[in-house]
Amino acid sequence: MSEGKKMTSSRRHQLKSMLLQIATKWLEEEKREVAAAKEAYIAENCPPPDLSGDVAALTEVCKKLHHAIDKIDEERYDVEAKVQKVNKEIEDLRLKVVDLAGVKKPALKKVRMSADAMLKALLGSKHTVNMDLRANLKQVKKEVKEEPTEAVGDWRKNIEDKADRKKMFESS
User: Fold this and answer.
1) Sign of the alpha-carbon dihedral angle for 106, 109, 115, 120
2) How far apart are CA 57 and CA 52, in angstroms?
């Protein structure tokens, strides 16, 4: 097909139906092959029992069948144990890969929530916890320091005192 032309819907529908018919034929053939393989395996490994004979011969056949069943059960148990062991090893290796790769932590979102709302969300609605921390503080009275008014005086006098000190340092 050229690139400019599109497939019509009827043609597309026809091709789909043909593909489905072919696929169903393949599935039916595969089912028949699997059934034939099962019958061949059973015929090979499980010959038909010889039920002609006396009671002793039949009990012997039953004992043989029970031994075969026990043997198969032991093999099945061993295989299941191996599968469980391998699955555990796979899971351990997956955890190691995650540990080595490191888990990417998502960026935390800023949540505007008061402490009371956060505790209520964590503890549930039954617990009412008041987080007013200022209520438990004791009141402290501030002492007002009074500066002596004597120190505040004539500024010219302070300057004269400092000038005298300056002369003391210069003379020595």
Assistant:
1) negative
2) 8
Cα separation values, 27 from 23, 24, 38, 142, 148, Å: 6, 5, 17, 93, 109
Per-residue pLDDT tens digits for 74-99: 999 999 999 999 999 999 999 988 88
Contacts of 58 (CB under 8 A, 6+ apart): 51
Tokens of 154: 């004539």
Query: Which band of pLDDT confidence, cut at 50, 70 and 90, is reported for residue 153?
Result: low
List the one residue out of 145, 117, 148 whose CA is nearest residue 130. 117
Classify residue 101 by its DSSP letter: H
7, 1 contact by CB (below 8 A): yes
DSSP 19-86: HHHHHHHHHHHHHHHHHHHHHHHHHHHSPPP---S-HHHHHHHHHHHHHHHHHHHHHHHHHHHHHHHH
Our CA dihedral for 83, 84, 86, 88, rounded to 10 degrees, sits at 160
pTM of the model: 0.35
List Cβ neighbours of 115 (8 Å cut-off, separation of 6 or more): 131
